[in-house]
From TrEMBL:
This is Winged helix-turn-helix domain-containing protein. PROSITE patterns: HTH_GNTR (PS50949). Keywords: DNA-binding, Transcription, Transcription regulation. PANTHER family: TRANSCRIPTIONAL REGULATOR, GNTR FAMILY, UXU OPERON TRANSCRIPTIONAL REGULATOR.
Length: 305
């Protein structure tokens, strides 16, 4: 039922529609330069009110994903891209993030180590891989192990901050809400793959650290790294109650990332970077964490999720 009828203020429905439209832009269903369906069609497809769709589109516009114009609808103006760190030609082509994550999940044993602000991007891509595994069960890995570092909620974040009211805590609380929601979603998705007997062994561990990252990075199967600085921007953000305010924030889901890959030469730039980032991650993971947020053991009984 749509949010007008549930009386929950549209929070869950807003998040459901927002996540799905982001997914469609990430996986290429809505390609760069293409137009999103009309608001009326989106409201009918998701069984929500036009107001919820308008809030979603306003959020996507504030994040830089779409550009909305009166009478012209919403057009996709950004997709997440990965730039090769070591150029192989004079004119390298940017690579989409989706295929790199898909490649990582093409291994029999998948390992992901991630240091990020909220885990929202990772959640998006793991859910896409879960959908692919369900559609192509013969391609499913035998093991998926995920470790995530996120900042502790006891740490004072420098962003986001309301431009007009720096003491307003709501933008920061929004970050913690996204982090908690992403952690719960990841746990559910991974455990579902095990319970459905699609992936025999899964593990998820999330640790809080006093370190606030000014970058995000992914380590994939110990052989590839994605790294990108959080760019500080001034942009409007939409709170869960629909209020819009101007904030000093960072690029999150759409942040540009550099791609590094280990090769046969241990001293090559790609191998050196992957090894250095793995050492850095392991040191923070082992020595600078306070709380284990969620644990999902590799094996267990087949309890429902």
């Amino acid at each position: 039922m749509g949010d007008e009828r549930t009386g929950d203020g549209g929070g869950k429905e807003f998040r459901r529609v927002l996540d799905e439209l982001r997914n469609r832009m990430v996986n290429g269903r809505y390609a760069l330069g293409s137009s999103l369906p009309a608001q009326r069609l989106l409201a009918e497809e998701f069984d929500v009110s036009r107001d919820t769709v308008q809030r979603v589109l306003k959020t996507l516009a504030s994040e830089g994903w779409v550009e909305s114009r009166q009478g012209s609808g919403s057009r996709v103006v950004k997709t997440q891209r990965i730039q090769p760190a070591v150029l192989q030609s004079a004119k390298p082509r940017p690579m989409a993030l989706g295929p790199i994550i898909s490649k990582a999940f093409g291994r029999a044993e998948v390992s992901l180590d991630v240091f990020t602000l909220t885990g929202e991007s990772l959640d998006t891509h793991v859910r896409l891989q879960a959908e692919r595994i369900r559609a192509e069960p013969d391609s499913a890995p035998q093991r998926v192990a995920v470790r995530i570092l996120v900042p502790s909620e006891e740490v004072e974040l420098p962003f986001p901050r309301s431009k007009d009211a720096p003491s307003d805590r709501r933008p920061v609380e929004r970050v913690w809400d996204i982090a908690r929601r992403s952690a719960s979603s990841l746990r559910y998705v991974l455990e579902s793959l095990r319970v459905e007997k699609l992936v025999p062994e899964v593990s998820l561990e999330i640790r809080h650290t006093p370190v606030v990252p000014n970058f995000k990075f992914y380590l994939l199967n110990g052989s590839e790294a994605l790294f990108g600085l959080y760019q500080v921007v001034e942009r409007p953000i939409v709170l869960d109650d629909g209020e819009e305010l101007t904030a000093v924030d960072v690029e999150g889901i759409g942040a540009a990332l550099m791609h590094y890959e280990r090769d046969a030469a241990p001293d090559s730039p790609g191998s050196f970077f992957v090894d250095s980032m793995q050492t850095y991650f392991d040191s923070v993971w082992t020595l600078l964490f306070g709380v284990v947020v969620q644990e999902l053991p590799g094996r267990g009984d087949d309890r429902g999720v």
